[in-house]
């Protein structure tokens, strides 16, 4: 039986998750100025795909043993799923970008929701509200220097958030503490803000603490936008498509006044969730904290995992040369052994998710029965598959099928057979999913993941996924009069308008370049 101590530890680490599955009420008071952003539809003219709950559950469920991989689950039998193009840092850059522009706390699983009535609790702009003030909750300032953000925990890790004794992070958006990796990268952005304050002071920038705070914030946001534009997007989307969208505007995403800042559910519930496939099951943070599972898969892993909402001691700090490319890695990026010794890459974008992603330890009370897997438990609690959550969220939001969206964009839709969905009576290959009923069309999320696998070998997004991502992210930058696509930006760190996360880490002294040969 689970001891009381262990249960409370588990419940604590689950808290951040519970926020994310929209079953917890918002704790922050609404910010009246920012209350007006809503979700919406990119293709309101398309019918919703309605699939039985039983089918959706089958598609997204984890396996109930280690031998037979489930349909959306990675397994040792499928061989490596490494994405040799992308270092693992990109996954968490992507997760922070998600938190920056989209938060649905109000749609209900198992019900039919009208996205246009659902509030987006984040501002849709790439303004790092997720770091600075979120849903009415401001990040605490350093009491000794009000121009700076409060950083550093009470066990001596200056690179962790400030935390309560129980480990709760004192930050604006608690989703940034959902796992260790996103927490450490978010803390890096906060440290960058503080470094900008120091730099501004050193160059004699006038103004009191508040003015310095605002200037440092503007600089941090510009650096962030540049990294999203120049580093993150081109890793997953063809550069020519990005350039075309910047030059000619989005093709399917309208930013009319009525739609200003609208986040389409085709993006937030499907396309941008490609990151759930990109996340690895284990990460090495440093030599002594290596191959650690993202989320515990057994009671024995409760003390050694990368769940968020826990104090990060100095010995669990990420060595950033293992997460981003500083030209110091000599090994083979596609090789698992090399990887855990050096620079790690994310997983391919395909329907195969890392095992912990199909076993989120949030199976406590409050979740609708149809997404709980009572056969699978961690420390006595049923787990929840993130694939199932997203598939049921797609149904709740009335998303169209992948094939309908592809046809609407003028592409040849990929048939379901190519995805290993196996109708009754059809011969099924190993790993295919035998279905209890015929289905002709696939949920958009599944379609986009499989499109990436079939068209780009999982290294990038496919045609439809790329277009949705480019339209929305570039569309948001173009619509924001303060963004770096609308106002000139020269980074004091790089001397031009191009910034990578590596530049920010080097500027902070949190990473080093290899010695010159
Ligand atoms: C690595 C660990 C991650 C975990 C455990 C995780 C977990 C979750 C959970 C539980 C939700 C709420 C789902 C729902 O209720 O419908 C969610 C939402 C979402 N996630 Fe992730 N996620 C991770 C990484 C990422 C990454 C890397 C990306 C993108 C690159 C991403 C994109 C999204 C998006 C777009 C949403 C919807 C946000 C909203 O509108 O509320 N996630 N995630």
User: What's the gyration radius in Å?
Assistant: 22 Å
Distance between the termini: 57 Å
Q: Main β-sheet, in a few words? A: 2 strands, parallel
Structural class: mainly alpha
Poorly predicted ranges: 1-33
Total count of helical runs of at least 4 residues: 15
Percent strand equals 5-15%
| Average pLDDT taken over every residue | 89
Series of H and E elements: HEHEHHEEEEHHHEHHEEHEEEHHEEHHH
Strand order of the largest sheet: 1-7
Q: Characterize the overall form.
A: globular
Helical proportion, percent range: 25-40%
Could you say which small molecules are bound to this protein? protoporphyrin IX containing FE
How many strands in all? 14
Written description of the protein model:
The chain has 15 helices and 14 strands. It is mostly helical and 517 residues long. A two-stranded parallel sheet has the order 1-7. A two-stranded antiparallel ribbon has the order 2-10. The longest helix is centred in the middle third of the chain and has 28 residues, at 209-236. It is globular and about 75 Å long. The N and C termini lie far apart (57 Å). The model is unreliable at 1-33 (pLDDT under 50). Bound molecules: protoporphyrin IX containing FE. Protoporphyrin IX containing FE (HEM) binds at residues 17, 20-22, 91, 94-95, 98, 102-104, 178-179, 268, 272-273, 275-276, 278-279, 386, 389-390, 393.
């Amino acid at each position: 039986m689970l001891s009381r101590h262990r249960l409370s530890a588990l419940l604590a680490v689950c808290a951040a998750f519970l926020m994310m599955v929209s079953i917890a009420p918002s704790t922050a008071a609404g910010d009246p100025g920012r209350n007006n952003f809503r979700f919406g539809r990119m293709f309101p003219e398309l019918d919703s795909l309605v699939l039985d709950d039983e089918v959706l559950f089958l598609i997204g469920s984890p396996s109930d043993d280690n031998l037979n991989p489930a349909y959306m689950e990675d397994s040792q039998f499928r061989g490596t799923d490494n994405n040799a193009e992308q270092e693992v840092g990109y996954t968490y850059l992507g997760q922070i970008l998600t938190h920056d522009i989209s938060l649905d706390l109000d749609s209900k699983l198992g019900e039919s929701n009208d996205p246009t009535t659902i509030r987006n609790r984040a501002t849709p702009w790439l303004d790092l509200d997720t770091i600075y003030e979120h849903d009415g909750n401001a990040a605490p300032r350093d009491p000794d220097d009000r121009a700076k953000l409060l950083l550093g925990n009470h066990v001596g890790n200056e690179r962790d958030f400030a935390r309560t004794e129980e480990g709760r992070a004192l930050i604006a958006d608690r989703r940034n503490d959902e796992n260790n990796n996103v927490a450490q990268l978010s803390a890096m952005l906060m440290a960058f803000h503080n470094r900008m304050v120091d730099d501004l002071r050193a160059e004699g920038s006038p103004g009191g603490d508040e003015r310095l705070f605002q200037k440092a914030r503007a600089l941090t946001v510009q650096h962030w936008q540049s990294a999203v534009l120049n580093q993150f997007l081109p890793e997953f989307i063809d550069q020519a498509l990005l350039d075309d969208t910047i030059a000619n505007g989005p093709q399917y995403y309208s930013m009319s006044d009525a739609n200003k800042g609208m986040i389409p559910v085709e993006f937030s519930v499907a396309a941008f969730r490609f990151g759930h496939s990109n996340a690895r099951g284990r990460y090495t943070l440093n030599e002594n904290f290596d191959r650690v599972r993202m989320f515990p898969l057994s009671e024995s892993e409760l003390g050694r995992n990368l769940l968020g909402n826990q104090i990060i001691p100095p010995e669990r700090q990420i060595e950033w040369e293992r997460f981003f490319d500083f030209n110091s890695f000599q090994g083979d990026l596609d090789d698992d052994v090399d990887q855990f010794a050096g620079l790690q890459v994310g997983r391919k974008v395909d329907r195969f998710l890392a095992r912990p992603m199909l076993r989120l330890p949030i199976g406590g009370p409050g979740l609708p029965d149809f997404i709980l897997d009572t056969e699978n438990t961690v420390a006595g609690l049923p787990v929840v598959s993130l694939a199932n959550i997203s598939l049921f969220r797609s149904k709740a939001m009335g998303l169209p099928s992948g094939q309908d969206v592809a046809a609407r964009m003028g592409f040849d839709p990929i048939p379901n057979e190519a995805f290993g969905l196996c109708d009754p009576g059809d011969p099924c290959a190993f790993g295919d999913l035998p279905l209890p009923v015929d289905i002709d069309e696939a949920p958009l999320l599944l379609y986009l993941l499989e499109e990436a696998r079939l068209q780009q070998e999982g290294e990038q997004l496919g045609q439809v996924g790329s277009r949705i991502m480019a339209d929305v992210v570039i569309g948001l930058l173009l619509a924001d009069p303060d963004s770096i696509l609308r106002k000139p930006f020269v980074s004091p760190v790089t001397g031009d308008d191009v910034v990578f996360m590596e530049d920010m880490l080097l500027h902070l002294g949190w990473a080093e370049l290899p010695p010159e040969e």
